[in-house]
Structures are given as C-alpha cells and as structure tokens.
Design goal:
single chain, 280 residues, 10-stranded mixed β-sheet, two-stranded antiparallel sheet, 8 helices
Length: 280
C-alpha cells in the first residue's frame, strides 16, 4: 500500500469508495447499488464492483444498467478476501479517497449510513473500522450483528446475533473488538499504516477475514467502533449457499483455527484450543 498518510481539512467530507465483490449474484445488485446511490452524503464517491468470474451475466448487466459503477472483471473466483483487496487497491489509486466501504451484494444501507459513519470516523483519529447495527434483511426486528469478536470458546462470532432489535436501541458510539465486513467502513489511514501489503489475508478466501483484521487492528492499538443513528440490512450467506455446504463448513473451521494461531498469545491459545471441541 502507498504510505501517503495524507489528511483532508475537518470541514470537508472525505471521498468514499464503495467496494462490492460479486459472484453469481446479479439479481441482488440493483437493490445493493441503489442503496449506495441513495446515500445522503455530502462528499464524493465512487463504486467499484469486483466480479469473481460470474456466469450469470453480471459484468454485462452492470455495465448496461449501472454506468456509474466501475467493473473489474476477473477470470477466476478469487473469493471475498482477494476480491476486496483488488477493489481496495484500485480505489486507493485515487489520492482523494479517504474511506473504503465494503458492502456485500446481499447487504443494504440506510440513506444516512455513510454520513453517520464518516462523521464518527472524522473525530476519532485512531479509528480503523466502523459499522452500524446491522439487521436481518428478511426480519428487520432481529439483529444480524453489532460487532464481531472471538468468543471464550475460540469462535469468531457476530455480536448480538439474533437478538431482538430492542436490545440495540440503546447502543452508543463505543469501541468493539471488530466490525462485520458485510457493511463496514475502513479508514484509509489505517489501511496505509497496517504492515501488510494486502489488507485481508487472501489464504482465507472467505469467512472470518474480518475477525483476523480486527485482531490486527487491536494489536496495533487502533480502534473499531459500532455507530448508532443508522442501520444496515444483511441477508447472509447468499453466495456460500450456492456451493456444497461442506465447503462452507471446511472454510469456517480452517479459517477460525488459522486466525487463532496467527493472532493469539501462546498461553491463551492453548486454553482456547482445549475449549473448542466442546463448542463445536
């Protein structure tokens, strides 16, 4: 990553790049992109869609129906981690981009989402990532996530998952372990400061790469926040449901074990590995 660490005046809204990684989800893209186009944000933005070799005419469809979206058409399925890295690298070629928003094809944003999160990020100099309360798309009375964390059993977990929305009505801006990449804002300054060439660990392909990123930010002394005043909506597991379920189980277990080994001190790791079989 380019280490510019530039900053814009506090009274100017930073430019935002929205990254969407798609694999055979063409039918979801209209609503997803529309939720970006309807953002009541005072700054400039660009939308980049990275298509992982979809066979459902995604590239042609987006080019015809969403001319404001820059499409990067890959020739193979690189997964969520590398797909987002490709989009982020392209976005940061624009020196005016201050914030990256990752948005799943099956996620939607309320119209004030970007403004709420950027306003919060601008007053927090060590902000790495941010999310709002994210609700179940099909049942918006139920929470999809308020944050992510590693449980005492060593499992990457979505905070408040399946809790009723009343549970999060009193959420105030607060630090959390990490943010859910289904609908997440990342500051450019964090991306350029973290030590790795690529933001997400591409060996993970998909699943739990956001928990891995949260652990990195925490170790580095950066902050992750949940922000009130707006919401996102997430269907969940739309792409993975198109594959053999054993593929999802394999990746979840493999990646969860890998992120623990990568990020936890040895003494804590041993305690957690003993607990994991009971949780599984």
């Amino acid at each position: 990553m380019i280490k510019s660490l530039h900053a814009i005046p506090s009274n100017i809204a930073g430019k935002v790049a929205y990254i969407i990684v798609s694999w055979n989800n063409q039918t979801l893209l209209d609503e997803c992109i529309d939720s970006i186009n309807k953002q009541q944000y005072t700054g400039a933005n660009k939308i980049i869609l990275v298509d992982n070799a979809s066979s459902d005419n995604t590239v042609e469809y987006v080019g015809k129906n969403h001319p404001n979206v820059e499409v990067i058409a890959e020739k193979k399925n690189y997964g969520f981690a590398k797909g987002n890295n490709i989009g982020i690298k392209k976005a940061l070629e624009d020196d005016n981009i201050e914030y990256i928003v990752l948005l799943n094809t099956d996620a939607r944003l309320e119209s004030n989402w970007t403004q709420c999160l950027v306003d919060s990020a601008k007053i927090r100099p060590m902000a790495a990532t941010m999310q709002s309360v994210t609700l179940d798309y099909f049942d918006p009375g139920i929470i999809d996530s308020t944050h992510i964390y590693i449980s005492k059993f060593g499992q990457g977990t979505q905070g408040s998952w399946r809790q009723p929305i009343a549970y999060a009505n009193s959420v105030s801006p607060q630090k959390v372990f990490g943010c859910n990449a289904a609908a997440m804002l990342i500051t450019r300054k964090f991306i350029e400061t973290q030590p790795f060439r690529e933001l997400f660990d591409e060996t993970m392909f998909m699943y739990l790469e956001d928990v891995d990123l949260a652990a990195r930010a925490t170790v580095m002394g950066w902050d992750n926040f949940v922000v009130p005043g707006t919401k996102a909506y997430h269907m969940g597991s739309v792409s993975s449901n198109k594959k053999d379920p054993s593929f999802s189980i394999y990746l979840s277990f493999r990646n969860n074990t890998g992120l623990l080994i990568k990020n936890l001190p040895f003494k804590i790791l041993i305690k957690i590995l003993i607990r994991m079989p009971r949780a599984d």
